Amino acid sequence: MNSKLSLKRPDRRRVQKLDRRSACPDQRIRCRVVLKVAAGLSCNAAARELGCAPSTAVRIVARFRREGEAALLDGRIENGERKIDDDVRGGVGGILAGTPEDHGFTRPTWTLEILRKVVKTVLSVLLSLGSLWALLHQLGVRWGRPRPVVACPWRASRRRRRIAALKRLAASATDTNVVVYADEVDVHLNPKIGPDWMLPRTQRLVLTPGKNEKRYIAGAYEPLHDRLVYVEGDRKASWIFLNLLRALIEAYDEAEKIHVILDNYIIHKGRLAQAWLAEHGARLQLHFLPPYCPNENRIERIWLDLHANVTRNHRQRTIRALLDRVHGYLAKRFDTWRQMLIAA
User: Fold this and answer.
1) Least enclosed by CB within 10 Å: which of 24, 213, 309, 312?
2) Is 22 inside any structural domain?
C-alpha cells in the first residue's frame, strides 16, 4: 500500500494547529503521524519517531485518506454519553453499601462478577470487568475486614435523644463544670496482631511470650483541655473504676461538678460503685450512654490509637516494659494525670 500523503499548506497548518491545541494525547499522535507521513516519512518511520505501533500509524493514514481531517477526531464521540458518569459512580457506591443478598444472591460477600450483574440490573449499565475494577479504584473501594457490632436494643428515637443530650452536655463544659469520657482498656503482654507493610514473599514474625500477662487502664478523657486522667490496675474490677473516680476528684479539685460519660459495664453501675458515690461522689455525676454505642464514647478513639501505636505487633518481653511504652505514649500525646494505684 502506498503510504504517502499530500497535504496542501492550509490543510497542514490546520493539522498543526489542532496538534498544538488538543488536550487529548491520542489526537496529538494522529496529527503527528499525518504530518510526518505527509513530510515524506513511511508509516514505520513515523511510528518509530512517535513511539507508537507501526500498525497504528498505518490505520491512521488509511483513515485519513478515507475521511480527511475528520479522521483526526476520536471516532468514539458518536457513541453517545459516557457510561460511567456521576450517577453511575453514586449508584455503585450505594450498591456496595449493601450485600449481594440484598439483590437475591445467596453469597454474602461481593465479587466483581456479582457486582457487574447487579450494576447491570439496578443501573441498566453493562460494564466490563476491567472498567468496573477501574471504577472501584477511583471510588477508593478497599478489600478490608468488617468490624462486628451489636445492635443497641433501644428504640432509635430514644437512642438519638440520649446521644443528643450527652453532646449538649459535652458542649457546655467549662473549667468548673468538667465533662469527661471514661472507659477501660486491656494491655496484654501477648501482642495484638495487626497488618503491617512487608516485602514480597516475606511475612513479618511477631514473637509472643507464650504465657500472657494483663494489666488494665481506667481512663477519663476531657476534650476541653485534651487531658487524660487514668489509673492502672491488675484486674478489671469495681475498685479500679473507683480509683479512677478518686483520681478525678483530686485532679479537678476546683471543679464544682464533674460529669462522667461512660458505658453500661457492670463495674460502673454495681452496688459497690453506687455505695461509694453515695458517700464520696457529691461532685460526681455519671451519665450512661445507650447500650452498645462505643462510637459515642470519645475515649474509645484514644484506646484504638494506643493499640495502633504501642501494643499491636509489639516486641516487649515483660509487661512492665510494655506499660512503660504505654505511659510514654500517653504522656507525649496528652496532658496526663496518672495515679499508680494497684489495690482498692
Assistant:
1) 24
2) yes
- pLDDT tens string 54-79: 898 899 999 888 888 888 887 665 55
Cell 473504676 found at = 241
* Concatenated DSSP letters of 157-225: HHHHHHHHHHHHHHHT--SSEEEEEEEEEEEESSPBP------TT--------SS--EEEEEEEEETTT
Task: Say if residues 253 and 243 touch (Cβ distance below 8 Å).
Answer: no
| Domain region containing 298 | 156-195+207-339
- Using an 8 Å Cβ cutoff, are 15 and 39 in contact? no
Rg (CA), the chain: 33
Give the strand pairing for 257-262 and 284-288.
parallel
Q: How far apart are CA 200 and CA 117, in angstroms?
A: 34
Sequential DSSP letters for 20-82: HH---HHHHHHHHHHHHHHTT--HHHHHHHHTS-HHHHHHHHHHHHHHGGGGGS-GGGGG-S-
The answer as to whether 146 is a domain residue is no
Other beta carbons less than 10 A from residue 281's beta carbon = 20
End-to-end alpha carbon distance in the chain? 97
Please check whether residue 145 lies inside any domain of the structure: no
Distance CA 117, CA 148 (A): 28
The number of domains in the chain is 3
Residue 314, number of CB atoms within 10 A of its CB = 21
Cell of 102: 440484598
Overall pTM surpassing 0.85 (yes/no): no
